[in-house]
Amino acid sequence: MPTNLPPKYYEVEARLKAADTPEEKVALTEELLATVPKHKGTDKLRASIRQKLSKLKNAAERIKKTNRQESAFHIEKEGPARVVIVGAPNVGKSALLSNVTHATPAVSEAPFTTWAPTPGMMPVRDIQLQLIDTPPLSREHVEPELFNLIRTADLLVIMVDIQSRSMQQLDDAIDILKEHRIVATRESDGRMEQRGDFHVPCLVLVNKTDDELWDEEFAVLRELEEDRLPLLAISVETGRNLDRFKESVFERLGLIRVYSKQPHHDVDRSTPFVLRQGDSVEEFAACVHKEFLEHLKTARVWGEGVHDGQPVGRDHVLHDGDIVELHM
Predict the structure, then answer these.
(1) Can you tell me the distance from the alpha carbon of 2 to that of 42, in angstroms, rounded to the nearest whole number?
(2) Number of other residues whose CB lies within 10 A of the CB of residue 313
(3) How far apart, in whole angstroms, are the C-alpha atoms of residue 256 and residue 278?
């Protein structure tokens, strides 16, 4: 054992031996390492402590991942964007998920059928977006973890029933979200945190607008609410406007699809790269491979605002459907 260890070392060592949680052990091991003087006589001790610290951090991370996986509300993100659907009981969230994805949530006319979130992948414009059905948004039955899941959304969909106090349902949903510091906004520029409130872009789906008889009711709701949030009338039962819903989600997310083309080859349209509106050739190169980002000399683009195969620089802004050929 090296000499000249300060009294603080032994004090922290005693606390470390009594520590219970992995987080405590990691913090105290880091503190212990900081108390050891740096000289030749302590090299082996410092190396030993660093090794223990590395093992403790790995163990703590494994436990954290296990705990997350045990929660039904921890869902791994898939695809380029995540859309979370919320709403009162019986507004048709599960039926919507079942209709536009291959997921099979429990669908029933009984309230509170959904007790855990259910993910599915929704195809739109050659890409797949993650759509998540959630338990009903209600003060009587609500899981705090639901709001953590909502904060991971790139777009929030609030669903209401035109045939059952739709305005009250929308007001209640917005109020419950605000009570948990989540603000639904018209903006589509991504998640934002402002003064402790979490702002997330939102689309309101007005379900059960089954035919033109309900169009007048929807027109009244839209006139009252459109300044606050964008609304779209749909019917999950009849399929009315479901394709429009998909397109609206794509547009609200601000996504663009860009296709890669190798020199002297045809364009590969099987799997587009997904970028955000305003992204440039440089962002596209980073998506393809880091070597393109580092060594890119020029690019040729087929698409909006250019003639076919026009040479462009790194800062050229891309548009949905553009084809890009990168040159190093």
Answers:
(1) 6
(2) 12
(3) 9
- Looking at the DSSP bridge assignments, the partners of residue 242 are none
For the record, the structure tokens of 254 come out as 């601000």
d(CA 205, CA 215) in angstroms, rounded, equals 14
| Helical segments of the chain, H only | 7-18, 22-35, 43-70, 93-100, 144-150, 166-179, 215-225, 242-253, 281-288, 290-295
* Strand-pair partners of 240: 235
Q: How confident is the model at residue 193 (pLDDT cuts 50, 70, 90)?
A: low
- From residue 109, alpha-carbon distances to 95, 137, 311 in Å are 10, 16, 58
- Give 309-321 pLDDT, tens digit per residue: 899 988 899 999 9
Which residue shows structure tokens 């048709």?
A: 92
Question: Burial code of 31-41, b = ≥16 C-beta within 10 A, e = fewer?
Answer: bbbebbeeeee
Q: Which residue's entry shows tokens 């009338």?
A: 233
State the average pLDDT over residues 7-27. Answer: 80
Amino acid in the structure at residue 196: G
φ, ψ of residue 124 in degrees (nearest 5) = -155, 125
- What would the 3-class secondary structure string for 195-217 be? CCEEEEEEEEEEECCCCHHHHHH
Sign of CA dihedral 240, 91, 187, 151: negative
pLDDT for the residue 190: 44
| CA distances for 266 relative to 19, 190, 193, 261, 263, angstroms | 62, 34, 43, 7, 8
